[in-house]
Amino acid sequence: MKEISLTIAVLLVSFATITAQPQLEKGNLLLGGTSTVALSGSISSELMSLGFIKIKYKYGSDSAEDAYKLTSYNFLPKAGYFVIDNLAAGLQAVVSGYTEKDLEYDETYKERTVGIGPFVRYYYPLDKFYPFAEAELLFGTIRESWYDDDEKTPFGMVGIMVGAALPLGDNVTLDAAAGYLRSSMKNTDPETEEKVFFITSGFSFRIGFTIYL
Amino acid sequence: MKSRLFTITAALLVACGAMAQPPQLEKGNIMLGVTSSASMEGSWGSDLMSLGIMRTKYTSGSDSFNEHKARSFSLIPKGGYFIMDNLSAGLQALFTRSSLQHVDSEGKWTSTSSAIGPWVRYYYPLEELYPFAELEVLAGTCVEKEPTSGPEPDVYRYSLFSTGLSLGVAVPLGDMLTFDIMAGYLRSVWKNKSDMEGEEYDFSEIYSGPVIRMGFIVFL
Questions:
Q1: What is the mean pLDDT of residues B9-31?
Q2: Rounded to two decimals, what is the model's pTM?
Q3: Domains of chain A (ranges plus CATH)?
Q4: What is the CATH number of the domain that holds B73?
Q5: pLDDT digits (tens, 9 = 90+) for B139-190
């Protein structure tokens, strides 16, 4: 872990020596990928991906047998607008789905996550890098169906981060941010019909790219 | 789904209109991105690197129960170098570790995956777009440990070998940035040794099929 931290630190210092100035002025756009750190699930690493995958099982030297057919997609856009100089506000969204069909028993499991929410980021631009503070909210539902059961789980997420953006050119920064995230998913106990919340909370650190147009 | 794809295509055309100076595809330049995890299972998020030190719990009324400590780390870098004009080659890597431990228990579930592999991409630059072809290979391991009632956890070891061939288009969004759309065929094989009635044998789980992906690439 220490070696990884050192490598990242060296990379950050190297990037800091590249001088270029993304525009943080009113009227510009900010683009990125929505972070999914605090949400569990198989959400891929691209801004968008769509896959039609077949899973086969192979035992020893036997020939491979078809086991499952998967369809998965995700779309994780984040876009903002500089409403005044140094202050961007916008929306982030998570749209992901997963369908798994058991080819032996002809049963299908489906999961779909849809979430959207606002974020606001304020930059305090210095000479070589731009410290920032960001607040974000995300609300949505996870819908699962299995056999004849269909379950809807609403969720909410809130995050407060502080970070620094290192310019990599006229319209890209490498962002490192640390902060506190909390997500909550609401279910109903089928036996007691009481509301049950599944809460995830804690510290998060993340690095990603932000685009300015 | 079709209407979504049309919307995305329309957004791309608008983005094309916002084009600035094209990125340089010349020998000596560097490319940076994020490793694709489209055809592999896992919760690796959308960031180049992420670290979470979280707690999870259930609450019902004023009661809270089943509290766990959850730790996760992922690093999914992809870097390349233009070894000649229009041809870049490099490495992509994936390192993830996650753990889950009940607050009142010693036992901890952990999963550690690491993989690395080369990729090569050839651009055929046109005036406004850069079509490209990309070949990628990723090899690595995954180790899962599950607590048991005894002192030693159950350990499951898997090896991963993934290959992909994609065709795509890069849309310049500035002098150091492209927005990439690519479609291709990916195949991942997870292998482990299984035990059935005392006899050990090789077990493979094979994921294969077409994948469409979109992302950003940074040129330095």
A1: 55
A2: 0.77
A3: 2-212 (2.40.160)
A4: 2.40.160
A5: 999 999 998 888 888 888 999 999 999 999 998 887 778 888 889 998 889 8
ipTM over 0.85: no
Q: Tens of pLDDT along B51-108? A: 888 888 888 877 888 888 888 888 888 889 999 999 999 998 888 888 888 888 888 8
Looking at the structure of chain B, the number of domains it has is 1
Q: Chain B residue closest to A204 (CA)?
A: B52
B181-194 core/surface letters (b: 16 or more CB in 10 A; e: else): bbebebbbbbbeee
Q: Within a domain: residue B1?
A: no
| Rounded distance between C-alpha atoms, residue B88 and residue B207, angstroms | 27
The predicted structure's pLDDT at residue B55: 84
Establish if B76 belongs to a structural domain. yes
Q: Which residue in A211, A74, A114 sits closest to B178, CA to CA?
A: A211
Distance between A44 CA and the closest CA of chain B, angstroms: 5
Q: Which residues contact B91 (CB under 8 A, 6 or more apart)?
A: B78, B79, B80, B116, B117, B118, B119
With CB atoms and an 8 Å threshold, state whether A38 touches B1.
Answer: no
